[in-house]
Amino acid sequence: MTIWRKSSHSGSGGIGGQECVEVAGLSGGIGIRDSKAPDGGHLTLTPRAFTALIHRAKQDKLNL
Q: What is the DSSP string of 40-54?
């Protein structure tokens, strides 16, 4: 069974009162999904790519 975890900053106390993302350890890497649409699929990243994503997010360098 896959256990998805949501940030403690999500929910009513989160940024702008919005839900955020959930993450889970998967056999193929680390899964990321929208907590408001958990049945809408997920993105799977390698541990290395996930670490790079988090690092860039913390530096505000996601180029969105």
A: S--EEE-HHHHHHHH
